[in-house]
Amino acid sequence: MSCDHHSQQISRRNLADYGMGFTGLAMGAMLAGDGPAGAAESTTAALDTPRAKSVIWVFLSGGYSHMETFDPKPALNRYAGKTYSQTPFPNPVDSPLHRKRFRSVPSEEINIRDVYPTIYPLQVGFGHHGESGIAVTDWWPYLSRCVDDISFVRNMWTTDNDHAAENQIHTGRHRLDETQPSIGAWCSYGLGNLNENLPRFVVLGGPTRTDTRESIDSYYLGPQFAGVPLQLDPGNPLQFGTRHAGQTAEQQAREFALLDSLNRITAERYPRDQQLQARIQSYELAFRMQSAVPEAVSFAEETAETQQLYGIDDDATRVAGQRLLAARRMVERGVRFVQVFPSAYGTWDSHQKLKENHEKMCRSIDRPIAGLLQDLKRRGLLDDVTVVFCTEFGRTPGLEERSGGTTGRDHHPNGFTVWLAGAGIRRGFVHGETDELGYHALGDAHYVTDLHATVLHLLGLDPHQLEIPGRRRLDIDRGQVIREILS
């Protein structure tokens, strides 16, 4: 839209305020109550029948091994210690898929990642579970009981072979390319509110570092569609969201009223300034959030049985359990997209001591994530909420030998596993596969934006028409819906 110079200055000041205080965070939560500033002015196209109302997106930072979690490969044990060329299978490094799914930032001459030739055996046993008989490793005793509610996608791939892949799985772009908005931001942009007192896009436990801000950011969509990080402290869940010492609720209410009055006087002079209208609404939301957010992150009304279900009674599972229980409370209250980081940055990154690390990390999330699925199911929320469980890449079938390594696996973008459950998702199903050694995703394998397209589709949004005028998205940015896993 067109504005005169003074109006543009107002808009810039409004945007500069974002992130500097409570109202800036509120503005980042919501521009308007009915989808994109106005959805009618964008080229957003909604489908007729959304299957899900909300999404809980669970991300495990560092890259879990698909083979030691959800895609066990017994051939690794049969040929342990041999090189790829000594097996009856084609050497996966010679496959054209290797170059397609490997985009090194340093020169290939000095970056040997992903091509370690000596096969490293599975570090854990596995069994077949549920009526569906799906193979899951023994490090998931709780989640394995839930496989009949899950669709596993075993043929995912990405291109970044370093931890910028954490951003890539959320934005769809390699770090050398133009940044795109995150999947949560697209959902926030494309959908209206179900609860005017809470943000549409909430983040729990992240972003894990300043350089992973891209994973929750909105970029050219505008800051109003970015994720809002919340802390699980009912006394101070939102930074800048608590009245300063000595200020009463009445004094703060008068302060908000004065700001509202001044903004509305300016709005009469510049009625077409959408950012100013957003500012007015952000102050209103900020005031409402002060009571809604602390209630949403408080577990006071949760029974001891429910908290035990999530593992909050155990030091090993408490952090993940608290974040996932809070996620359930958020979607229950109408938050559209909840992005959960159950563990710290890079904790699944098992270059060495994979067995020790993965056994510990699987224990930290196994009971909480199974508890989430069970809790959603018994409350009838699996009919309305889609759960996504993912990481940034898999790990190499070959032993990582850098620095004399003997106990770990390196990063592996060529094939890995994610899973989904809940609204619109087929239950007790495995889609896709990797080769016998777990190296390449086979068939019509899925780049990470296929996962995005699937989530948007379930929410009733067409990923091929979700667009910002003046911004050209690539076909790979839009992705393709993974229709095989839809119910």
What does this 3D model show about the protein?
The chain has helices at 5-17, 22-29, 75-78, 96-100, 165-171, 183-190, 249-269, 274-296, 304-309, 318-332, 354-378, 448-458, 475-478; strands at 54-60, 126-129, 134-137, 150-157, 201-204, 228-230, 337-340, 385-391, 394-395, 411-412, 416-422, 429-431, 446-447. α1 runs parallel beside α8, α2 (22-29) packs across α8 (274-296) and α10 runs parallel beside α11. The longest helix is centred in the last third of the chain and has 25 residues, at 354-378. The chain is built from 13 helices and 13 strands. The model is unreliable at 1-34 and 36-45 (pLDDT under 50). By secondary structure, it is an alpha/beta fold. The strands form 3 sheets. Strands 1, 4, 5, 6, 7, 8, 11, 12 and 13 form a 9-stranded mixed sheet that branches. A two-stranded antiparallel ribbon has the order 2-3. A two-stranded antiparallel sheet has the order 9-10. The two termini are 41 Å apart. The radius of gyration is 23 Å and the shape is globular.
Number of helices: 13
Q: Which topology does CATH recognise?
A: Alkaline Phosphatase, subunit A
What's the CATH H-level homologous superfamily? Alkaline Phosphatase, subunit A
Helicity, as a percent range: 25-40%
Number of domains: 1
What's the story with the biggest beta sheet?
9 strands, mixed
* Total strand segments: 13
CATH class: Alpha Beta
Kindly estimate the percentage of residues that lie in beta strands according to DSSP. Answer: 5-15%
Overall mean pLDDT stands at 86
What is the CATH architecture annotation? 3-Layer(aba) Sandwich
The run of helices and strands is HHEHHEEEHHEEHHHHEHEEEEEEHH
Weakly predicted, low-confidence segments: 1-34, 36-45
Specify Rg, calculated over alpha carbons.
23 Å
In terms of structural class, how would the helical and strand content be classed? alpha/beta
Distance N terminus to C terminus?
Answer: 41 Å
